[in-house]
Amino acid sequence: MLISSTSKPFLSAASLRLLSRTHRRSLTCSAHRLVAHPPDLVRWVRREGGSVHPNLTIGDHSDFGLGVVSTDGIPAGSELINLPSHLPLRWNHPVGRTSDGAYAVLTKLAEQVPEELWSMRLGLRLLQERANVDSFWWPYMSNLPETFSVPIFFSGEDIKNLQYIPLLHQINKRCRFLIEFEKQVKAVLKDVSPKDHPFGGQDVKSGSLGWAMSAVSSRAFRLHGKALPDGRHDEVPMLLPLIDMCNHSFTPNASIVQERDATSPNMSVKVVAKKEIEQNTPVTLNYGCLSNDFFMLDYGFVVPSNPYDQVELRYDDSLLDAASMAAGVSSPSFSSPAIWQQEILSKLNLLGDNALLKVTLGGPELVDGRLLAALRVLISSDMESVQKQSLDTLMVLGDEEPPLGATVEAAALRTVLALCVISLEHFPTKIMQDELVLKTDVSLATQLAVQFRMQKKLLLVDVTRKLSQRVKMLPKEKSTA
Ligand SMILES: C[S@@+](CC[C@H](N)C(=O)[O-])C[C@H]1O[C@@H](n2cnc3c(N)ncnc32)[C@H](O)[C@@H]1O
């Protein structure tokens, strides 16, 4: 490793497998910061022109790591934190002492990152600052966690412990990307002159790239950029010092307010109390109405009983045939739909060359609207009454009369119930076994993986319970299909 005198060395981690078996619950990864005794972040924000409410400090927030906590009561509507535009760390910020050459190299690297991994792009910028001993943001960066609990750092065993293929697929994709990107970065940097080297001459390994990508995915906020012709604004991801110490809640006591768009030199980002905050209360923000897949992949935690969590399924004729058979639904045309049924399936984008076959259970909808409409249509043999209904009506699981009558509804819901049972059976362990594992002394990664899969199963049980209630409420004599 080439370390120039003007750069801070990166983590020595050459491998992505950073979380070892010795990481126990009490040692949440956020307890360890980049340096042992980082500077006081609140003082730094104030010194650099930001403001922080006098009744706030950084403290422990139980299993969530560090958090912003009130030392005394704070009235609703109070401004808690205010960052002027030079404090956030973002891609297009004036690059300080770094030459334009380095910026051009960084841009070239960022162009090789797929759009969906935007966190790696800003991560490159973070690594650039991390390599610079004179970085304005060093007091901020030194307060960042040394490691993250996102699954790209899990052992192979713990990735398997997640027991959920869609997430495994995403993790593999990210790990493969990081390994490939390390090679691309090396190839680009090999001919770069020292003065244009964005990382002060240092090699960048996949472990450092993963650290930076995780720092951004778990802490960056997407703010409003310039106005687009359609009236919306483009999104500009930024790391917001101190604001990113606030933990997540779906019922937060604070929210972020942005004044002026990100192109304005007078932009500011504030955290404002939505309600009165009592003494010793963590200040929380809503990171978004996200499924546990996103919380796990980007943030490294799982929200218990998450109302936005879902289980993904593939819309598949043979799976539906198996489910309807298990549900005792007589002769639906899943594998051989009539032409009029095929037309509706195409409109639902469940049939055809570019069909989108991913459907979901759980979340606010309970049953994916497209799946529900398809089941209703395929179970009904009455073309006329189906064609009287709009697609939107067929897709809604409402409290009104079911659109195709109680008999079809009961058969459709029973088929979904059978899908829940089949999905539950696909998990190699039962909820009770997961609970037992969580009572033992296992690593943080194992705990997270087991919590994640257990929440998916609890979600399926919850959907089963709610759908069974709906079937029971349907008129009795018509509820057999
Ligand atoms: C934006 S940072 C918040 C500050 C962080 N706790 C720290 O110690 O630096 C987000 C990280 O905090 C933790 N976190 C935030 N909200 C959480 C929650 N509701 N449950 C569990 N962990 C949470 C996760 O580790 C997440 O990746």
TrEMBL record:
Top-level taxon of the source organism: Eukaryota
Keywords of this entry: Methyltransferase, S-adenosyl-L-methionine, Transferase
Domain SET stretches: 54-288
Alphabetical list of Pfam families matching this protein: Rubis-subs-bind (PF09273), SET (PF00856)
Any coiled-coil regions, as ranges: none
InterPro entries on file: Rubisco_LSMT_subst-bd (IPR015353), Rubisco_LSMT_subst-bd_sf (IPR036464), SET_dom (IPR001214), SET_dom_sf (IPR046341), SETD3_SETD6_MTase (IPR050600)
One of the record's GO molecular function terms: protein-lysine N-methyltransferase activity
Gene Ontology BP, a term: methylation
Protein name stated in the entry: Histone-lysine N-methyltransferase setd3
Organism of origin: Carex littledalei
